[in-house]
Design a protein that fits this description.
Helix content is 29%, strand content 19%. The chain has 397 residues and is α/β, with parallel strands linked by helices. The strands form four sheets. Strands 8-6-5-9-10-16-13 form a seven-stranded mixed beta sheet, sandwiched between helices. Strand 9, helix 9 and strand 10 form a beta-alpha-beta unit. The chain is globular and about 55 Å long. It binds S-adenosylmethionine. The site of S-adenosylmethionine has 18 residues, from loops.
């Protein structure tokens, strides 16, 4: 057994190089005058691709993350299964119950359970319901009507956890989705699932941009009811197994590991990350630096009820979390977005987090939201702060 998880990033690196060439062509097409006006030149995607192998090795260093060899074993112990279909547009489902025996499903459960805790989901895998701590699909349903279509877009998901929303972005037709998350456990969880989904990749999926990433033969439209009619329906039926990779990946990186100025992505998501950042303003500027001119930021974060300039800076813990820095009111965050140079920032959704959306399950048996709230007053956290309320903001760059 090797002491580092075998995550094959080759298709991603090749795809980034191809995109880098396109980016360079687009820049050359710009007038020289416009190019000279820039004070900072963006790093090209090809330059980033060249730096990534070292950054990946640091992010998946077993000296730093002692559990990695054990997680590698989980990947190695996954049963050999072939999915007859996948659906990333109405949920995340890989395979069907009939694609495996009860014994294989049990082996799958055992292997995946070794990667506990499963926080983001839910996932359906070969008839196995991975009922995660969060109903991440509810967040997706809340924001999807308000964002620019992702079809054929290059998308970055900052702080993507185990990549639940990355699959949904791909399900919306994104050309290439890159998630980043510094937690290697979540990266390994993602690749445990991708292992089974990869058979739906086309050999050219990492190379063809912008609109040919998924070939028509492997995309079958599926009637899913009114709420999903707009989706390009990455609902696929098995055609053949190929030795290549779907254009969805997660890198073991924090946002601070990205080049200072990429200006490469059509849409950048930052969901559940802002309040973990010690400098909220720097986070917004870092997100902006990842976006192409005209690209869209989708920002989801904890908020408080309040007027402009009100912000909660919890001195101790917030809902038992240690690393919570800024929880602004929506008008405050809108003003921060304007200050950072985003155009037409708008609040598109506000929602109190319920104990139906975040709770302990067999796949996440640690404490969860019911334990973080005041036992006698569910409008307060156990520390006496306002209970979690989350909002979605959209803005252009
Ligand atoms: C609350 S979770 C949100 C996950 C997912 N985006 C969602 O909305 O469900 C926050 C995630 O941010 C990640 N994170 C923490 N620090 C980060 C950083 N500096 N850069 C990127 N991600 C970070 C954590 O590992 C964690 O997976």
């Amino acid at each position: 057994m090797s002491d580092q998880p075998v995550i094959d990033y080759q298709d991603l690196l090749t795809g980034l190089n191809t995109l880098g060439e396109q980016q360079a062509q687009a820049l050359r097409a710009h007038s020289k005058r416009a190019a000279n006006k820039r004070s900072v030149k963006p790093a090209s995607l090809s330059q980033w691709a060249a730096q990534l192998p070292d950054a990946i090795a640091r992010g998946l260093n077993p000296q730093r993350w002692g559990d990695l060899p054990q997680w590698q074993q989980c990947l190695d112990s996954l049963p050999s299964l072939t999915a007859s279909s996948c659906d990333f547009s109405t949920g995340v489902r890989i395979g069907e119950a009939n694609d495996c025996s009860d014994a294989q499903r049990e082996q799958l459960r055992t292997s995946l359970m070794a990667l506990h805790p499963w926080r983001k989901g839910p996932y359906q895998l070969f008839g196995l319901d991975v009922d995660t701590e969060w109903r991440s699909d509810w967040k997706w349903d809340r924001l999807l009507p308000h964002i620019a279509p992702l079809k054929d877009k290059l998308v970055l998901d900052v702080g993507c956890g185990n990549g639940y929303h990355c699959w949904r972005m791909y399900g919306e037709g994104a050309q290439r989705v890159i998630g980043i998350d510094p937690s290697p456990r979540f990266v390994v969880q993602f690749y445990a699932l991708k292992h089974f989904a990869n058979q739906f990749a086309t050999p050219t999926s990492a190379l063809q941009f912008p609109s040919k990433a998924a070939s028509p033969e492997t995309l079958a439209l599926k009637k899913t009811g009114p709420s999903t009619q707009q989706a390009p329906a990455r609902t696929t039926t098995a055609q053949h197994a190929v030795d290549t990779s779907l254009p969805v990946d997660i890198l073991p990186l924090g946002i601070e590991d990205l080049p200072a100025t990429l200006e490469a992505f059509d849409t950048v998501f930052s969901m559940g990350v802002l309040y973990h950042r010690r400098s909220a303003m720097d986070h917004l500027l870092e997100l902006k630096a990842c976006l192409k001119p005209g690209g869209q930021l989708v920002l989801e974060t904890l908020v408080i009820d309040g007027s402009k300039d009100e912000v909660l800076v919890p001195e101790g813990r917030y809902a038992k979390m240690r690393n919570v820095w800024f929880i602004p009111s929506p008008p405050t965050l809108l003003s921060w977005l304007r200050k950072c140079g985003f155009k037409t920032p708008r609040l598109v959704d506000v929602c109190d987090t319920s104990t139906a959306e975040q709770r302990s399950t067999p796949w996440m048996h640690f404490e969860s939201l019911p334990d973080f709230l005041d036992a006698n007053d569910s409008s307060r956290t156990c520390e006496g702060h306002p209970a979690p309320r989350r909002a979605v903001f959209v803005a252009e760059c």
